[in-house]
Amino acid sequence: MRKPLMLLFLASVPFWLSACGDDDDEGTPPGGGGPDTELPAETWSWVDVTGSACGNGQPTGIGVNPTKDSDDLFIYMQGGGACWDEQTCFVARTATNLATGYQATQFQSETTRGAPFFSRTQAENPFRDMSYVFVPYCTGDVHAGTAVQTYGSRQVHHKGASNVDAWLPRLVSTFPNVKRVFLGGSSAGAFGAQLHYERVAAAFPQAEVHVLADSGQMINPNGNLVTTWFNNWGVSVPAACTGCETDFTRYPAYLADTYPESRFALLAWDQDVVLRTFFAYPAATYETLTRQLLTTAYDGNANARYYVKNGANHTFLGTFNDITSTTGVALDDWLSGWVDGNPTWNNVLEP
């Protein structure tokens, strides 16, 4: 079954993993490398993950920036499009890192590490005191696949969910005392975070697990796309989520209803130009479907909230510290309410 994108906060214990390099030492493994190397605190390091695969079949890994000052873990799943046939994967190339893969070299130049949600010095950042995990995206399947497909003459490893299975146990053994896990992602990562919620919650049964979907509203795409995506990527959904394999809109409601102690947050632009293109809708139709989703899956659920702005932009987290709704709610305050479980945390919807 699939779980959502993740924001994880770690326990205050050393982060022990096999490291391929850190960003301050041009690929030199901290402590000389090896399977039980302690990664440096509050510094990015690349960790190779055995059993993982990008779309080109090459292994990948995760970025880790631990701290000893928090029992919270923030896991961020990267976005970058999607693909499901020869046209989308190899002609239009609508999924990032599919052919190149993603390893230590790519991580050294990864601009996401400088994003405000990974800043430890920005007072407005609600994640500033947490340990960070960066999950790269290179499988074309919104982090949700378990299949290998041949499109034309080329093979694609849609192994996003298999990769989660590969790195998640290592995080569990490294951070056995984690108290809160914040699982999040943007775009493709937002869908991944939602689809992987149950996997992460099962791995950390002692911890709270909360989900943040940045530009990942689960509306049904046009035509039979949802069936094509799930079949080609090898996506599975919880058996208890009746109809979710054919109706995307049921999934966020299922999560909120089934797990009332967790908080599920959605950031959305109502005419998102990137998502509406992938979902094959004109702007007005996409807006209508987005607002319908808010009514059916979020309204009335105290643990599921949304922050929705008018417009065709895509994603929020990269500039969250500069965004305020027309109703006067600053996004950084809204995100802090989600993190803290503030009773004043509520829906924000621009008319």
For the termini, the CA-CA separation is 36 Å
CATH architecture designation: 3-Layer(aba) Sandwich
Overall radius of gyration: 19 Å
- CATH level-1 class: Alpha Beta
Q: Major sheet, described briefly?
A: 5 strands, mixed
CATH topology, anyone?
A: Rossmann fold
What would you call the shape? globular
Overall average pLDDT: 90
Q: DSSP strand (E) fraction?
A: 15-25%
Task: Output the strand order for the largest sheet.
Answer: 2-4-5-7-6
The secondary-structure element order is EEEEEEHHEEEHEHHEHHEHHEHE
Describe the structure.
- Residues 21-40 are annotated as: Disordered.
- Residues 1-19 form the signal peptide.
- Keywords: Signal.
- One of its GO terms (molecular function) is hydrolase activity.
- Helix 10 links the parallel strand 13 (304-309) and strand 14.
- The protein has a single domain (16-349), classed as 3-Layer(aba) Sandwich (Rossmann fold), CATH 3.40.50.
- Helix content is 26%, strand content 18%.
- The model is unreliable at 1-37 (pLDDT under 50).
- The strands form 4 sheets. The chain has a 5-stranded mixed beta sheet. The protein has a 5-stranded parallel beta sheet with strand order 10-11-12-13-14, with helices on both faces. Strands 1-3 form a two-stranded antiparallel ribbon.
- It is an alpha/beta fold.
- The chain is globular, with a radius of gyration of 19 Å.
